[in-house]
Amino acid sequence: MRRRSRERYSDSDMDNNHETEPLDKINNDQSKARHEEESEKHRKTIGRFRIALFAAGIVILLLLIIVIVVGVTKKYEKIEPCSSGQRVDLSEPLVPSIFHDLTSKEVKGMMDFLFKQKDLNLTRPEKMSVKSSYIFSAELHLPNKRDAISYLDRGSGQRPSREARVIIFRGDLLIPKIMEIIVTPLPNPTHYTTWIDDIPFQYRPVTGPDYGGALVSITTKTNEKARQLLLESFGGTLVDCGDTCLTYKYISPMSAAVSGRKERLYWYWMSQFVEFYILHPIDFAVLVNMDDPNYAIEKVWYNEHTFDSLDSLVKQYNENKLQKKPILFPVMSENLFSTLYRRGTEVPKTNQRAPISIEPDGKRYSVQGQHVTYMNWDFDFRMSSTRGPQLYDIRFMDERIVYELALQEVSVFYSGYKPTQMFSNYFDSTALIGPQDKGLVPGVDCPSHATFTDALHVMESSTKPIIYKNAFCIFEINTGMPLRRHHSFSSFHGTMYEGLPNSVLILRSILSVVNYSYLLDVILYQTGAIEVKVVSTGYILATPFTSNAPNFGVHVSDNINGNLHHHMFSYKVDLDIEGTHNRYRTLDISTTASANRFNPDPNAKIIQGQFVISEKKTEKEAAYKFNFDTPKYHLFYSNLKSNKFGVPKSYRLFNRGMSKQLLPSGKGNEPAMAWMRYQMAVTKHSDRERTSSTIYSGLDALDPVVNFQKFLDNNDTIVDEDLVAWVSMGVQHIPHTEDLPVTHTPGMDLSFFLLPYNYFPEDPAMGSRDSMRIEPNVYNNPKSGVRVTGFNNEDLQCKPPSNSYKEMVEADPGILFETAEGQSTSI
């Protein structure tokens, strides 16, 4: 029954469904449409809301960025420039110290006085000639040391007069000569006295009239007679040459000691007239007699052969009697050795700036004129025209350690097959060392925060003082090396850390003598130590390649050799240790064998080092030549002052730049540099033995004006006397390809130190605020926490000064380069 009813229901239901299907379908479609319409409206509403929300987010983000930028900008606007620190006053003093360079006022007074002296018959620079009387140079003449010390230490007696030492070339005399006179007192001199009056005229260095006259003469003669030869052989000419010019520039002296003639002979080299012209030599040179009024050419060197004259060379060349082998160098505009453009792999990969040094609290040193104060240090400095940088009255904790620390000479002796380098024995004082130091560049030569000072010179080209800008730089710098430090990690040794960063003051000058540059530093340490450092850079003196003499040079580029040469430096160190009554001793280190009492073998020995004190009594005993078999400590001390243990308070001279001069004594130009026979010599101070070399050394080897060996031959006693140490340094240089284009500084540095030795009761730098100590709160228990003392937060709260050198040199090129007037920019 149920099933039947069900079936009946199903049949009926099926019939009804067939009847109502069209109506239901319409209703469903309408409902679906309404639903879709409402969904679409909902989706649009949500979309509009999302867009509005996104737009609001962007607005909020932009506002947030603006707030941050404004905040940061305001924050940096509030950062004040860093304090300038101690005072720096570089103005010329009205009353200069006894060590200060000549002032412009003093130069004017000196010149006015000299040109009124009829017996000197002086010619002004614009009219000077070889046969006239003219001033070659003038600079400060120091007072006698005893007078200076008396004034400085006790304030007793009269202040020593300011004086000038003037070199005059007397070409106007029947027998020409060189005079050195002392003009006094400055700034209003009343008289002069003769210092040296018998210097042979032939010893004079090459001067403006000499060099210029010879250059015009030999250029004209060579162009008239050998123009076609030069064009065919070397692809250029001396005049009317466009961009393929050749030039005579570099010279090599032939002193009487090597030429056998008492005449001034110079080899003039020829090279391409391009940047780094010395790296573009050609195999052509002429020997010029500088004493001949017509500058006679006495020899000609061409393609590894010597000729008696230009006429002889050209005749043989035109008659095809010479093997013609043109050596056409690359197009001169394609300078292979220029540093104008970078090449090789660029580093870093991105344009990141190099680290810089800053002074967060300003300068911790002061400069007043040419006097510097730094922490416990005081000293005066100046630039000698003839000898370069000089320091005086160097004091630590108000006690004088050095009265005079002064460069004396820079020499370079070359070797070679060709005459141009065979005779290239240079004494840089002949070109005047002081004026070669100028134009130091902030950010490269010295830190940009350094203090830059100028140098004043009196030279033949002007009666007015010539000012060379940026001749010195003075700066304090963290060397990146601790001055001291120790770390005890284990509790077995006692946990602690202590260290002191090594901040030093540096007085720097850089000499650029034609092709070479020499960095000269005096470095003052907080321990009372002084370091004198020399570093060589610049570019090598090249010669045209030859296979005839492989042992003289290295083939470093297609057409050039880099030749063996020896750089040598002489320094004067006038030490005053606890006064001027000093002694010099060495601690000679050796080995000793003694019975080993702790070995059962009765014949057992223990061998160990020992030192033996050796007191030096005379100058000859104190002439030191290094021997690896006999190492020594070199000590200077006063026998009147000892520490509480009875040990003399001393300073140790430690030379890390020693070099042996291999030339035999008395041969060639060696006598002119007798100071290089010794790594150090100690003499009794004499006001007549002021320098180890002179501007005449390049030509006076047969009879040196200053014969250093005679300083020692006196053999004065040096016990309880005022002592002077003469220190020499040097480095042999065999060039290599990496020296091109410019020799790098690593491995080219030399230095000597003056180190306190039992002078202080302990390290005098223990008072430095720069030190740091880290230790546990409870001794030897790091778990108790640690305390740090002396840590300096490196977060800058001020804005360091910017390096504006680029704008300065663009506005005034005279800072770096010679101006059209032939002088550096005057202040």
From TrEMBL:
<dbReference type="InterPro" id="IPR015800">
    <property type="entry name" value="Cu_amine_oxidase_N2"/>
</dbReference>
<dbReference type="GO" id="GO:0009308">
    <property type="term" value="P:amine metabolic process"/>
</dbReference>
<keyword id="KW-0472">Membrane</keyword>
<dbReference type="InterPro" id="IPR000269">
    <property type="entry name" value="Cu_amine_oxidase"/>
</dbReference>
<dbReference type="InterPro" id="IPR016182">
    <property type="entry name" value="Cu_amine_oxidase_N-reg"/>
</dbReference>
<keyword id="KW-1133">Transmembrane helix</keyword>
<feature type="modified residue" description="2',4',5'-topaquinone">
    <location>
        <position position="516"/>
    </location>
</feature>
<dbReference type="Pfam" id="PF01179">
    <property type="entry name" value="Cu_amine_oxid"/>
</dbReference>
<dbReference type="InterPro" id="IPR015798">
    <property type="entry name" value="Cu_amine_oxidase_C"/>
</dbReference>
<feature type="transmembrane region" description="Helical">
    <location>
        <begin position="51"/>
        <end position="72"/>
    </location>
</feature>
<keyword id="KW-0479">Metal-binding</keyword>
<dbReference type="GO" id="GO:0008131">
    <property type="term" value="F:primary methylamine oxidase activity"/>
</dbReference>
<feature type="compositionally biased region" description="Basic and acidic residues">
    <location>
        <begin position="7"/>
        <end position="41"/>
    </location>
</feature>
<protein>
    <recommendedName>
        <fullName>Amine oxidase</fullName>
        <ecNumber>1.4.3.-</ecNumber>
    </recommendedName>
</protein>
<feature type="domain" description="Copper amine oxidase catalytic">
    <location>
        <begin position="357"/>
        <end position="766"/>
    </location>
</feature>
<feature type="active site" description="Proton acceptor">
    <location>
        <position position="428"/>
    </location>
</feature>
<dbReference type="InterPro" id="IPR036460">
    <property type="entry name" value="Cu_amine_oxidase_C_sf"/>
</dbReference>
<keyword id="KW-0812">Transmembrane</keyword>
<feature type="active site" description="Schiff-base intermediate with substrate; via topaquinone">
    <location>
        <position position="516"/>
    </location>
</feature>
<dbReference type="Pfam" id="PF02727">
    <property type="entry name" value="Cu_amine_oxidN2"/>
</dbReference>
<keyword id="KW-0560">Oxidoreductase</keyword>
<comment type="similarity">
    <text>Belongs to the copper/topaquinone oxidase family.</text>
</comment>
<dbReference type="GO" id="GO:0005886">
    <property type="term" value="C:plasma membrane"/>
</dbReference>
<dbReference type="GO" id="GO:0048038">
    <property type="term" value="F:quinone binding"/>
</dbReference>
<feature type="region of interest" description="Disordered">
    <location>
        <begin position="1"/>
        <end position="41"/>
    </location>
</feature>
<keyword id="KW-0801">TPQ</keyword>
<dbReference type="GO" id="GO:0005507">
    <property type="term" value="F:copper ion binding"/>
</dbReference>
<keyword id="KW-0186">Copper</keyword>
<feature type="domain" description="Copper amine oxidase N2-terminal">
    <location>
        <begin position="106"/>
        <end position="190"/>
    </location>
</feature>
